[in-house]
């Protein structure tokens, strides 16, 4: 009898700092039987794969290979971390145009293989490129996901855990909107083990002047990537873990609520733009957008993010 078993296969396009760290984290978690890495720089991807594969005796069972286009055909998840870097003097819009063209080229290869995978975009600006990927692929919106503010929400939880001196796993907190400068903290949804965060900090937190600190924490979340890039040139470990969390949720059909970037179609009063809101994620990708009861101020912040992203999409369309 023919076996029904299929290896869980993840293809990573872009084997740079983010792609390779994600591959390393994914391999260690034992969430996939096959990990294929692809990159336009052939020597570089050969080197990354050899280095990763030499750890095979120490991972749970997994095969790590250099991928080819045909690997898209039977992948469960395809993660795009490929990105052009800003050249000296280059405008953000020009970089955006180059990355949009690159994403469209990658999507063409994936679609040509009649892939049924879930597509996860991490390349920045992630919300705009998720929209470009979704429209260019013609795939259902649940199957094209941006990593969005999953990383930012984890930075937020980390900082709250540190300030409140409590285990981060007891901190439930969400950064919504653009993965970028207009993102904001949904304070109305933030709690520590079911206790609203303000109440928790007033009662149990070691922190004086909490209301002032709230703003400083959000600013710290927004500045995190800038700080890390100033120190070491790239961010890779936490995004590697965030991508592993999203991909694990898909491969294990976990139905986790994650702040991934998705196309809104009237939810929160917003249409025709991708940004991060809480979403139910499982084997089909995004199964449901969760419409939380956010405050009017938070709704305004979400609309502001949406209009910034719509402007960027408009500029891209008319450039
Ligand atoms: P990197 O320069 O180290 O790696 C990018 C890789 O993409 C390079 O190896 C390059 O050769 C490859 N590449 C370029 N064009 C390609 C193509 N058409 N096909 C296949 N490979 C191609 O960069 P990085 O530090 O790994 O960052 C990658 C992207 O991830 C950037 O856009 C970065 O801004 C983004 N990023 C996103 C988040 C997030 O939260 N979404 C966090 C960190 C970084």
Characterize this entry briefly.
By secondary structure, the protein is of the alpha/beta class. The chain has nine helices and 16 strands. It starts with 8 loop residues before the first strand and ends with a helix.
What does the model show?
By secondary structure, the chain is an alpha/beta fold. The chain has 2 domains: 9-146, Rossmann fold, CATH 3.40.50.720; 150-318, L-2-Hydroxyisocaproate Dehydrogenase, Chain A, domain 2, CATH 3.90.110.10. 45% of the residues lie in helices and 18% in strands. The chain contains 9 helices and 16 strands. The protein has helices at 17-29, 42-53, 92-112, 126-137, 150-164, 197-204, 210-232, 237-251, 296-318, and strands at residues 9-13, 34-38, 63-66, 77-80, 118-121, 144-146, 171-172, 175-176, 184-185, 191-192, 195-196, 256-258, 261-265, 271-276, 279-282, 285-289. Strands 3-2-1-4-5-6 form a 6-stranded parallel beta sheet, with helices on both faces. A 3-stranded antiparallel beta sheet has the order 7-10-11. Strands 12-15-16 form a 3-stranded antiparallel beta sheet. Helix 1 packs across helix 8, helix 3 (92-112) runs parallel beside helix 4 (126-137) and helix 5 crosses helix 7. The relative contact order is 0.13. It binds nicotinamide-adenine-dinucleotide. Nicotinamide-adenine-dinucleotide binds next to helix 1 and helix 3.
